[in-house]
Specification:
Layout lengths: L1 E5 L3 H12 L3 E5 L13 E3 L2 H4 L9 E10 L2 E13 L2 H14 L3 E3 L10 E2 L4 E4 L5 E4 L6 E2 L2 E4 L6 H5 L6 E10 L7 E6 L4 E6 L4 E7 L4 H12 L4 E10 L11 E3 L15 H14 L3 H32 L7 E4 L6
Parallel strand pairs: 1-2, 1-11, 2-6, 4-13, 5-18, 11-17
Antiparallel strand pairs: 3-5, 4-5, 7-10, 8-9, 12-15, 12-16, 13-14, 14-15
Helix pairs in contact: 1-3, 1-6, 6-7
Length: about 325
């Protein structure tokens, strides 16, 4: 089949890699001039190695627990499976290499404003991020497209073109303190509807916040001022969230990754969840309807459970702090 993937983020690249291995003819269109997400904490559970074993070489630090600071109590969560700090930028480029080596074509600087309707099998070589050789191709010339997969992120063009509902958006801001720290725990501070985090990355320390758009900057600025922390390289991005993954009931066009709003209600993390949904798509390909049903069946209970836990904890922190456990062991991948 001739497949167009819109968006060269981790999900689109992973699908391009795996579909190309299956023998499909895949072209990925990316609006940016280089590959690699830069505004992301890059904190992944060890499940990331099930999807991308080669990513082990990107590990910067290992995280075994998290301290959650509430106004009147601090709780310690010990992860049953470790989390690992990596560069999301380098992870994306790693998967881009794997996709290209499997035969996928990646085209940079190609903004897609509507559905790609044509497919050009004739390519020429170009220069991509970090010396990667990127195949360049016209999205408007050639033979027909059999399937289109929108992996174009929180502000998905494909989602809008399908007139689907929009997810709720949070604002994430991050910055870095140039200080070495190899601690094996991260810290978080609960805010109104989100949290502030501190992640030791080995060579430096990352601070960030996920909160409502109108409140995030004020919360973060006040926190940093109180802690006398001065950050470099502050950047921001949006995080989509939804109760039910936003996937069309369409046999030819579908969505995957952040375009579906599939991120964890507690932390806003989405990479492992996106890769799980990508594997569900691969298992059912080319049946996009069955993919939609199986994603909802798998994730809906987990989303509801996470939302209930979050609301319970946030309610208890002010009203019944004694209900919050001092220490707990959990399988963290479906919360953090």
């Amino acid at each position: 089949m001739k497949i167009v993937i819109v968006g060269a983020g981790i999900t689109g690249l992973y699908l391009a890699w795996k579909l190309s291995q299956k023998g499909e003819e895949v072209i990925v269109f990316e609006k940016k001039g280089k590959i690699g997400k830069e505004v992301c904490s890059g904190l992944f559970s060890e499940r990331i190695f099930d999807f991308i074993p080669e990513s082990k070489k990107l590990i910067q630090n290992e995280i075994k627990e998290v301290l959650i600071h509430f106004p009147r109590k601090t709780s310690k969560i010990i992860f049953k499976k470790s989390f690992f700090v990596m560069s999301h930028y380098k992870l994306d480029n790693l998967v881009a290499h794997l996709a290209q080596n499997s035969g996928a074509k990646i085209i940079l600087n190609n903004k897609i404003d509507d559905f790609p309707k044509e497919f050009d099998p004739h390519t020429k070589r170009g220069q991509g991020a970090e010396g990667t050789k990127i195949n360049e191709v016209s999205p408007r010339y050639g033979v027909g497209v059999d399937r289109t997969i929108g992996c174009d992120g929180a502000n998905s063009v494909i989602r809008r073109e399908l007139n689907l509902s929009e997810p709720r958006f949070f604002l994430a801001i991050q910055g870095f303190l140039e200080k070495k720290d190899n601690s094996n725990y991260l810290e978080t501070w609960a805010t109104n509807s989100g949290f502030i985090w501190r992640i030791p990355r080995g060579e430096n320390i990352e601070y960030g916040i996920m909160e409502d758009f109108k409140k995030a900057k004020n919360y973060f600025d006040r926190f940093l001022k109180e802690k006398k922390i001065y950050l470099l390289k502050r950047k921001a991005a949006i995080i989509p969230q939804t109760l039910v993954p936003i996937i069309p009931k369409n046999s030819k066009i579908t969505l995957c990754g952040d375009a579906t709003g599939l991120t964890k209600p507690w932390s806003g993390g989405g990479v492992v969840w996106s890769l799980i949904s990508a594997d569900i798509l691969l298992k059912n390909f080319p049946d996009f309807i069955k993919y939609k049903k199986e994603v909802n069946k798998f994730f809906l209970p987990k989303i509801i459970f996470s939302k209930i836990i979050k609301k319970t904890v946030y309610f208890s922190r002010s009203n019944f702090p004694w209900l919050l456990p001092k220490e707990i062991n959990i399988e963290g991948d479906f919360l953090f």
